[in-house]
Amino acid sequence: MAIDKFEILTSTCVPLPAENVDTDQIIPARFLKATSREGFGENLFRDWRYDKQNTPVKDFVLNNSKYSGKILVTGKNFGSGSSREHAAWAIFDYGFRVVVSSFFADIFKNNAMNNGLLPVQVSETFLKNIFEEIEKDAATELQVNLEKQEIKLLATGDKETFDINPYKKLCFLNGYDDIDFLLSKKEKIIAFEQQRKD
Amino acid sequence: MKPKTLFDKIWNSHVVDSIPDGPDVLYIDRHYIHEVTSPQAFTGLRKRSIPLFRPKRTLATADHNIPTEHQERPIREELSRIQVETLSKNCKDFGVELYGLGHPYNGIVHVIGAELGFTQPGMTIVCGDSHTSTHGAFGSIAFGIGTSEVEMVFASQCVLQPKPKKMRINIEGKLRRGVTAKDIILYIISQISASGATGYFVEYAGRAIRSLSMEARMTICNMSIEMGARGGLIAPDETTFAYMEGREFAPQEKEWDIALEKWKTLKTDPDAVFDKELNFKAEDIRPMITYGTNPGMGMAIKGTIPHLEDIPKSEQLSFQKALKYMDFEPGMKLEGYPIDYVFLGSCTNGRIEDIRAFASLVKGKKKAESVTTWIVPGSRQVEKQAYAEGLVKILEEAGFAFRQPGCSACLAMNEDKIPAGKYAVSTSNRNFEGRQGPGARTLLASPLTAAAAAITGKITNPADLM
Ligand code: SF4
After folding, report:
1. Which helix (H) or strand (E) covers residue B90, if one does?
2. Which of B65, B428, B432 to mutate for ligand 1's pocket (most ligand atoms within 8 Å of CB)?
3. Which residues from chain B sit within 8 angstroms of residue A47, using beta carbons?
4. Residue pair B89/B81 in contact by the 8 Å Cβ criterion
5. B429 lines ligand 1 (CB under 6 A)
6. Closest ligand 1 atom number to CA of residue B345
7. Please, which residues 52-111 of chain A have a Cβ atom closer than 8 Å to chain B?
8. Does residue B78 contact residue B121 with C-beta atoms inside 8 Å?
9. Which CATH class is domain B165-284?
């Protein structure tokens, strides 16, 4: 699935200060029965978003019209637990393009990057700073510049650089797809299989 | 030559190509698939009009989303049925061997892969399921992948992976009575936290590990992911080879001898360096139970939940949230606390030894009236053996029913859900909020501790009943 090119994203944010948000919270297992990739956004954070009667939980941030945007800002160790890629699909399908946290679980990070969702890891201090700015003003904008690997709080000018694997960066910047890449390696893979046989 | 870790040896021998500053192209020997994380990957192949590159290296089962009663009847729930049928169609269209519902080899993907000998030492193994780390017990590099990566393996038999860092966890000494593999791993995670091994691939070593059976080793490697590790492995030895011999897909006759020679070389060189090394003493480990909503929130059954002051500031909020969900108080003792459900099963503890352990403790006793118990074998073969060994009879005499294999209440995708607010002592691997059903409260423990709870109706140290 070719992904859209990603260069600079400027957007308001949705703050979710919880830590250790696991993939069961992001998308509960009972929604994994679909056989396509689409439509998971509807059930993103389902059990936090709706109560048992299916009425929206008022204080959950996705139900608060004050907050919107393409950037989800969240606490430490985001995306732990199950390897379900549905978690990344759900966040993407909901409309987010970037998740900011001070720490991501490994598999989630991979899954996110394989689906055009950019995980941006910042320091604890910077994360706190972002949360505070959003708290003060819900219209606070963040700018993510992938080329420069830089994330900036537009109002204060505070910024930080973030890491990304250079190969993945290239994929994001060019909308490049891993499978096309692997298919281009077919001959090498076959040669590898043959050499292992002797 | 520079001394190498076992992990390095296996990894390096599977690198097809390295991308400068990028991940390695890693060749995959075994690919397990199931109904939940494969359909979108098959759709990807169809969209690109390409075949599945090496179907013989792939094995499929239906396990996550199937009922554990009346498996001979059509699946009632429509979405689940469609998912299982989609798997059958995909396997047929793309030439993949499927051990579907009702097949004598059907079962939880990580249970059947090992018992069929499809998993072997020195291999690279992936599956769209995080507990693929289970297979590391055989001295292989096994890890969970997402659906996009499942599609990569379908298309090219390779994945793109950055090489993780290496950690070794040594456990020396002798285990106490009533302490099992599950307690070891819950103990380790409680010591290093649910993210303590993120970015690492772990090798478990030391005398206490060497003394474990293959099934116990699988329990340990299974939960590596619960401390954030990419996977965990244990160097193969005589225990491994004895387990492998004669299994369905294990090498036979001359090939067995050749394989054995190779497998014997699979160990970490004496002076190899790890990025991190941790040491634990087996004697320090007691029967464990979790009290919170991640597997790192564990303690000895006879212990007390930490006080707020004992928790680092940055984690106090999530600690309080977890206790609120569980309806526990800081500083509380859990021993003797009444519970409502017991679940024995999953790829962590659904193998024959686990059922034996449970049966050994409940033999001649009676199930507590107040407790609902689900005993779910990990596979059809485990089920068959439990009947053959007379374990089911022991269980039935003690008042327990024996179900059919599947993931069941481990992730509660089927109808085996713990009701909201109820406490379940569970031998599975995750105690996340809602994991076993919306509002369910999970206490992770070993099969022995589960058995003790099922008999007394309370959280009980199994050593007291042995
Ligand atoms: S038993 Fe649980 S952890 Fe294991 S494969 Fe099934 S759902 Fe995953």
Report:
1. helix B78-94
2. B428
3. 433-434, 438
4. no
5. yes
6. 1
7. 52, 75-77, 80-85, 88, 103, 105-107, 110-111
8. no
9. alpha beta
Residues of B in contact with A116 (CB under 8 A): none
d(CA B151, CA A187): 18
Report CA(B133)–ligand 1 centroid distance (Å).
Answer: 11
CA of A37 to the centre of ligand 1 (A): 21
B155/A183 touch (CB, cutoff 8 Å), yes or no? yes
E strand segments, B148-297: 158-161, 165-172, 200-205, 231-233, 276-281, 288-290
Nearest to A114 among B146, B230, B321 (CB): B146
Indicate if B165-284 has the same CATH topology as B6-161: no
Calpha distance B107→B69 (Å, rounded) = 14
Question: Does the domain spanning B289-460 belong to CATH 2.20.25.110?
Answer: no
State the pairing for strand pair B141-144/B97-99.
unpaired
Sequence-distant (6+) residues with CB within 8 A of B27 are A189, A192, A193, B14, B15, B16, B124, B157, B158
Q: Ligand 1 pocket: which of B129, B134, B436 to mutate (most atoms <8 Å of CB)? A: B129
Closest Cα in chain B, distance from residue A111 (Å):
6
The interface pTM score, or ipTM, of the predicted complex is 0.91
Contact residues, A window 134-153, toward B, CB-based 8 Å cutoff: none
Domain ranges within chain B, ordered by starting residue: 6-161, 165-284, 289-460
Q: How far apart are CA A165 and CA B162, in angstroms?
A: 9
Task: Name the residue of chain A whose CA is nearest to B50's CA.
Answer: A183
DSSP-assigned letter for residue B168: E
Give the β-pairing of B15-18 and A159-161: unpaired
Q: Could you tell me the distance, in angstroms and rounded to a whole number, from the CA of residue B410 to the centre of ligand 1?
A: 6
CB contact under 8 A, B148 and A36: no
Contact between chains at A182 and B158 (C-beta distance less than 8 A)? yes
Strand order in the sheet with B30-34: B97-99, B58-61, B30-34, B124-127, B141-144
**Joined tokens for residue B172:** 């020396």
| CB atoms closer than 10 angstroms to residue B215 | 21
β pairing state of B158-161 and B24-27: antiparallel
How many Cβ atoms are within 10 Å of A49's Cβ, its own excluded?
16
**What is the Cα B333 distance to its own chain's centre?**
28
User: Distance, in angstroms, between A25 CA and closest chain B CA?
Assistant: 7
Residue pLDDT tens, chain B, 466 long: 899 999 999 999 999 999 887 899 999 999 999 999 999 999 999 988 999 999 999 999 999 999 999 998 999 888 899 999 999 999 999 999 999 999 999 999 999 999 999 999 999 999 999 999 999 999 999 999 988 899 999 999 999 999 999 999 999 999 999 999 999 999 999 999 999 999 999 999 999 999 999 999 999 999 999 999 999 999 999 999 999 999 999 999 999 999 999 999 999 999 999 999 999 999 999 999 999 999 999 999 999 999 999 999 988 999 999 999 999 999 999 999 999 999 999 999 999 999 999 999 999 999 999 999 999 999 999 999 999 999 999 999 999 999 999 999 999 888 899 999 999 999 999 999 999 999 999 999 999 999 999 999 999 999 999 8
| B321 neighbourhood in chain A, CB within 8 Å | 18
Facing B430 at nearest CB: one of A28, A81, A183: A81
CATH number attached to the domain at B6-161? 3.30.499.10
